[in-house]
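Lab manual, section 2.4: Encoding a predicted structure.

Procedure: take the sequence of the chain (328 residues), apply the prediction step described in section 2.3, and record the output as structure tokens. A sample record is shown.
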Amino acid sequence: MGDAPLKRENEGDELGQKVKKQKGDPEDDPSGNGEECGEENILSGFKTTAVLKDSAREKTIFLHGKLDEQEAVVILQKTPITVVSVAEMFASSKLKLEMRNDIYSTYQLQPPAHLNVLKATVVCPATEKHVKKYQVQESFLVEETGEDYLSITLPYIQEKSFSLQWVFNILEKKAEADRIVYEDPDPDVGFVLLPDFKWDQKQTHDLYLIAIVHQRDLKSIRELTAAHLPLLQNICTKGKEAILKRYGLPASKLRVYFHYQPSYYHLHVHFTALASEAPGSGVERAHLLSDVIQNLRADGGFYRQRSLSFPLRADDGLLAKFQQAGRL
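Recorded output:
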């Protein structure tokens, strides 16, 4: 469901730990080439069975296949060119002329290996849900009333029992503790703030962090009331302060929002750079944190009553539930 990730479900086994290390944290390997870490190439045995999606615009390819005899999804993405690498790239790259016409010319540019890195995200073992998530699919816009949420969406969520163990691992410092940028440990208004895996942490123009709340009984904005305003205000204020302190990016250059539907049902907030085109930041899915706060101040039951629209892919089980109920 939704964008990005179901990122890290079921990371408990040995292969999952290898995958997580292979993803790497730029702070662990400043060179970005992974060689100093001595990690084995877990992708050497990957056998591709299908291309799920290939985006030339985003320089990304999504592959389905087998890794150590387990179903896996591998996402390969060109990493952004950073300003600090440009001078070295110009000085050290090989150029091959493709075409010249008057003042225009194009070349194939082959940068040195450490400046020509792909980001590889691995989901293993991958479920059918993961595979479908990354396939190109037709989408439909659903308008969900407050009554629809109680009679269709909530029962579907409860029936599916989506795993949140990877979220609890983060909150309990059993995983990714070294990636946490900021934490407020208060059980009522506290949260952890850490980089999303879609961000390589090498530049701020595509900054992407996630604030995950410590409260475990909040699935999405549908369950927010005026009683949660202290929590939301705390995330808004302290999240922005932490990003300014760590990355030097002021609040005026941030987009702070919820997804609905979310990709996983534990309340979390997205912090992205305003300059980036983050997945799921369009009007049909994103709800600005500032708007949510204002709406709840005006009406404490706003999100339990109002209709919310969101896109669902053709193969989404929730879409089928809405169709069965005659709501599409």
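Check your result against the sample. The CA atoms of residues 52 and 135 lie 5 Å apart.
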